[in-house]
Amino acid sequence: MDIQWRKSSKSSGAEGNHCLELAERNGEILLRESDDPGVVIRTTPARLRALLDGAKAGEFDDLT
Length: 64
Known about the structure:
Strand order of the largest sheet: 1-2-3-4
Mean pLDDT: 89
């Protein structure tokens, strides 16, 4: 399975292992943490957009 993982330029850590990585495959969005790459979460573009919109709107600020 050849997946092209992408991560934000804002990812922290000298080794780049403190980040969330994203990829697209067969219409799905894949997410994983770089320090545990064997665990992959699958979602749809629409669900990811809803999450990002909610985060931008501050809906999850109480969790940080």
